[in-house]
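re: ur msg from earlier - yeah i can do the cytidine-5'-monophosphate complex, just paste it... oh wait u already did. ok heres what im feeding in:
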Amino acid sequence: MTRDRDGAEGGSGMGAGSGEGPPVGAGLHIVRFAPAKLNLTLAVMGRRDDGYHSLHSVMVPLMLGDALTVSVAPQAIAGDTLRVSGLAVSPGEDNLILRAVVAVRAALALEHPRAGADLPPLSVRLVKRIPVAAGLGGGSSDAAAAIEAALAAWQTTLTPASKAAVAASLGSDVPFFLAQGPAVITGRGEFVEPLPAMQSEPPAVLLVTPGLAVSTPAVFGAFEGGARPADPARARIISENLAARLRAGMTTTALLQEAQQLAAANDLLPAAISVAGELEVFIRSLERLVGRPVCQSGSGPTQWVMYPTLADARKAVRMVRLAVARGNLPTLGDGELSAIATLIAGPTAPPPVRRGVQSDVHFGRANGPRTVHNDSGADVGAPGGSADGPPEPKGDRSR
Ligand code: C5P
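and the outut:
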């Protein structure tokens, strides 16, 4: 029995770890919503000694998200497993969820040596709705959700410091998702300052992800190679101003008025264009089509456009779909374009995981469910896929 939003339901038999009787958490099914993110701003402040870059970024979670269910595996199963349905997932993203489980187990073994040794294997199910490798943080969000869900399944906790350390060890965007709300991130992503929620219903966004792969390390590499904005201070100034205004309390109307500024507040845009030249024509075509400022999330390639309401963003999805069909919006790369209307997440609870407030038009392929095993308890390699059931629904497809 599972519940439709964060939380747990299930059988009895919890309590102390091994020995006689069922393992800790037996019968529990922990369901977590793993939201996508947008970088409203992204300023690269400099390069660090460890090769990473110091950032200043205002990040917000979206109502679009994946659903992660974590259960204690039946006793016959020897290792952690991951079953994926929905959109196709790259091996790296599979790895991140199972690596999160392994990292939590290791951190628990350090913090609670006696209990940590007895933690049973976990079965993880992921319904993938966030376009992958898109600058929307889907893999990082899944990893953060896996940390929380593993702790809940094992009915234990880590200190905030070790949870944050586990998150940072998995990826620069993972700490943001532990904060579960809008935040300013600095450092390489490990410093997260939560921001107050917007004072009114947050705006909607159109997300357009062209079907071409843009590698984040390649984009940072191009930035180091000189593909930078003409004004090196602009993104930082806009980012710091936006953070200050959000701290003081900002309305949706005020944020919508900043759209033009936000379109100029991603230091990685020239680098993304230098890695994938076609992106520039694509962005210009999208700007002409929607008649609004187009912004990039993270290292791309997802481009986003802000709208006052979800109905407006859904209208824009239809416009994009039509433009693709008529050849007025170029398709890039080998993959297919995805256009999604969703909302910036507000102060209210995340949406039910089976009926998210999102309207998605995925031109991309969905994959059948498949299972990845992690029997060794160590990092897994490339997952072996096996189709073992029908794909799950991808949410509200209404327009
Ligand atoms: O931390 P994560 O694995 O998400 O980072 C992917 C790559 O992006 C890093 O290997 C690095 O090249 C680049 N990166 C960076 N500075 C950051 C975040 C990421 O240089 N703050």
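cool cool. Residues 52-53, 55, 171-173, 188-189, 216-217, 220 surround cytidine-5'-monophosphate (CB under 6 Å). ping me if u need the other ligands too
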